[in-house]
Design a protein that fits this description.
The structure holds 2 protein chains of 2 kinds.
Chain A (H helix, E strand, L loop, with lengths): L1 H13 L2 H33 L13 H26 L6 H31 L7 H22 L3 H15 L2 H11 L19 H50 L1
Chain B lengths: L6 H38 L13
The chains are: A mainly alpha, B mainly alpha.
Amino acid sequence: MANVTASQSTLQSLANPTRFVAIADRVLPWLLGLTLVLFAIGLPLAFFMAPADYQQGQTVRIMFVHVPAAWIAMFTYVVMAAAALGSLVWKHPLADVSARAAAPIGAAFTLICLVTGSLWGRPMWGAWWVWDARLTSMLVLFIMYLGLIALWHTIEDPIRAGRIAAILILVGIINIPIIKFSVDWWYTLHQAASVFRFDGPTIHTSMLIPLLVMAVAFMGLFGVLHLMAMKNEILRRRIRAIGMRAAYEGRRGVA
Amino acid sequence: MGGVDHLGFIIAAYAVTVVVLGALIGWIVLEGRSLRRQLARLERRGYGSRRKSGDAG
C-alpha cells in the first residue's frame, strides 16, 4: 500500500511539466553518456568479436542493427500505448506529450528495421521484400506511426488530437503481438525468434552478448531522444498557450 | 572480416542506420533550438509564460 502511494506521488510530481523538464535536464547527460559508452562497447563487439555465421557468413552482422531496431520499434509503440492509457484513464498531463514525442522515434526505428531487413533479405533470401506475416505486420506498424504523426499535425487542438490519437493507439496495440508471434502462427520466410523464447535463447553467447549490448545501447538512445522530444513538445504547448493568451488579451484590448 | 561476403549490403545497412538516426537526432535538436528562440522572442515582447524559460530547457 505504501509502495502504491509512493509511486502515485512520484507520478503526480512528474505531472508538473516544469518539474519534469528539470528532472529530464539532470538525467539526460548521464543517459547520453551511458548510451555512448554502450555503443563504444557494442559496435566493436558486433564488428570484430562476434563470429561469422556458419550459414550466413559475415552478413549476420546486419543483425546487430536490424534486431535492436525492431525491438525498439515495438517497444516505442508499447510506450505510446501506456501513455495513451494514462491520457484517457488518468488524464495525466504528460501522457499525451509522451505519446506524441515517441511517434517519430518509433517511425525512424521501424524504417531502420525495414530497410536493414531488406538489405539482409536480398543476399540471404534472394528477394528485397516478401509479403510474409512478419514483414507485412512490421510495414503496418510503420504506416500506423505515419498515420498518427499525420493526425497530430492535422488537428490543431492538442487535447482533442491527443484523445483521438490515444484511442487509435490502443486499437493498434493488437499489431504488437501479431508482429511478435507472426513467425509462429503463420509459415513465414522470416526466421523464428531466437532470443525471446519460452525455452531460452537459441543463439550462441558469442553473438548474443554483442546483440544484447547493442539492444541496450539502442534503448538508451531511445530514452535520450524521447526525453529531448518530450521537452520540445512541452515547449511547443507553452508557446501555443502564450500565443493564445496574447491573442485573447489583444482582442480584449481592441474591444 | 577478411574476404567479406556481401560487404556492400552490410555497409549499406549500417549507413542507413546512421543516416536515419542522424536525421532524427538533428531534427530533434534543431526543433528544440527553434522552439527556445520562439519562446524567448515572445517573452521579450512581454508575453512571458508564468514560468521562467529556463525551466523548459
